[in-house]
Design a protein that fits this description.
Elements (H helix, E strand, L loop, with lengths): L2 H12 L10 H14 L30 H10 L8 E6 L2 E2 L13 E4 L16 H9 L4 E5 L4 E10 L11 E6 L4 E10 L6 E10 L4 E9 L5 E10 L4 E8 L4 E10 L5 E10 L4 E10 L5 E10 L4 E10 L7 E10 L5 E10 L5 E10 L2 H9 L4 H17 L5 H16 L3 H7 L1
Parallel strand pairs: 1-5, 4-6, 5-7, 6-8, 7-9, 8-10, 9-11, 10-12, 11-13, 12-14, 13-15, 14-16, 15-17, 16-18, 17-19
Antiparallel strand pairs: 1-2, 3-4
């Protein structure tokens, strides 16, 4: 049975049990129709050429509808230290876990609903509708964060995958609405056991009002055999700012589709993406940033390290619409090949339909600098330590941009462990 046929069969199995308060039955059927009509992506599609869907051959698309005690225990063991001043919302296999959450209530000016209704078009108005539609078809719960005008809040959301992909899937679904002049910091983490083979399909939708400021950090540390797809759609209003810092270390196969639209005059986005892979991991990102208003600004930085026989891929597509005069975009895409069979594919793209704009891009791929390596070796530093230092130097500039010290330290330690393997002493030296 093909993955598409199995998807339809799995949906028929659980359709009657999925909560209509989240998505009405006809809305789920319509979303499933989007997926079946378009079909799952294949290798002939240019924007999917680096992501194989073969790992989905054995996946069950049915979601979990309840949380058992074993999953709670496993999730508790995976929880990182809490971030001071942040409310914490924990989801296990896509379901809200009240017992593991902290301050799960509404703050002044900020309302949070863990079973919010999803619009039937959620996640589908972007660069690729298919996996956003898949979330609408199957998601048992959805998180909604709404900040009123001038409200301020720090929120941490953790999605922990515990079920094997051959048993069920998880569908993290989040909507974020920031009102005028609101200030939000959102930390979104996807976690799983070291060698678990989970399947998760996340969909995130952000609406950022005029002069609002949203800082968004996304960390993906799923198991080494996990499959993770995510669709992120962002609309940014006039004079609003959005910073997105993404860190990816986990999953056997990971794909991110981002569509950010700078819709209002003076809207800004700063996007930094850091990836470090090993063994045979694949991490593929397709990022479309659309300038639809004048005076908008984009900065985009990507750093990907591929070790072993892994592959990193990043397609950064910037579109300047006809009404985007006096806008500016800067892309810097760099990859590092740190293994004999490693592959890297970084592609900046500019599509400009107006005059009076500034746009620049650059892309490089290379191996560890032999001259720097020789220099470190000549100073008596062991080869494995020297290689780890050079890898860390490659990423440290992007990691340093994360403005939450405790989280930044956790990320630094995770990268250090990736670079040094099981050598805890060397990892400690790096951080």
């Amino acid at each position: 049975m093909s993955a598409l046929a199995r998807l339809a069969s799995d949906h028929a199995t659980v359709a009657g049990s999925l909560p209509v308060a989240v998505v009405a039955r006809d809305g789920r059927e319509a979303a499933l129709g989007v997926v079946t009509a378009l079909g799952l992506p294949g290798g002939r599609e240019e924007n999917w050429r680096y992501t194989s869907l073969r790992p989905l051959d054995e996946v069950r698309f049915v979601p979990q509808l309840s949380i058992d005690a074993a999953s709670v225990d496993q999730a508790r063991s995976l929880l990182p230290d809490p971030l001071t001043g942040f409310d914490r919302y924990v989801f296990i296999d896509g379901l809200f876990a009240d017992a593991l959450s902290a301050n799960p209530g509404s703050a002044r000016g900020v309302s949070i609903d863990t079973r919010a209704p999803l619009d039937a078009a959620f996640g589908q108005d972007g660069a690729d509708a298919r996996f956003g539609a898949l979330a609408v078809a199957f998601a048992p719960e959805a998180l909604s964060i709404t900040a009123a005008a001038s409200a301020t809040r720090d929120i941490e959301v953790l999605f922990i995958a515990t079920r094997q992909g051959t048993e069920s899937a998880s569908y993290p679904a989040v909507t974020i609405h920031a009102g005028e002049h609101a200030r939000l910091r959102v930390v979104e983490r996807h976690l799983g056991a070291a060698h678990s083979a989970t399947f998760s399909n996340a969909a995130i939708d952000l609406q950022i009002g005029s002069a609002a400021q949203v800082g968004h950090v996304r960390v993906q540390q799923l198991g080494a055999e996990a499959i993770h797809f995510e669709t992120l759609r962002v609309e940014i209003g006039a004079d609003a700012g959005y910073t997105l810092d993404t860190v990816a270390l986990g999953a056997r196969s990971a794909r991110t589709t981002l569509h950010a639209r700078l819709a209002g005059h003076g809207a800004r986005i700063g996007y930094a993406h850091s990836v470090a892979l090993a063994d045979t991991q694949v991490n593929d990102t397709y990022a479309v940033i659309e300038h639809a208003a004048p005076g908008t600004e984009t900065t985009q930085d990507y750093r990907g390290i591929a070790a072993g026989r892994s592959r990193v891929a990043f397609n950064g597509h910037v579109v300047m619409r006809s009404g985007a005069a006096k806008s500016a975009s800067q892309q810097s895409l760099r990859s590092l090949l740190a293994g004999p069979g490693a592959e890297a594919d970084v592609r900046p793209q500019l599509e400009i339909y107006t005059d009076d704009v500034k746009a620049s891009h650059g892309a490089t791929s290379g191996k560890l600098d032999e001259h720097m390596l020789f220099y470190l070796l000549s100073r008596g530093i062991e080869r494995r330590v020297a290689q780890s230092l050079l890898k860390w130097a490659f990423l440290t500039g992007l990691v340093a941009r994360i403005a939450i010290p405790a989280l930044r330290m956790q990320i630094e330690r995770a990268f250090a462990q990736r670079f040094t393997g099981e050598d805890a002493a060397v990892a400690q030296e790096l951080v």
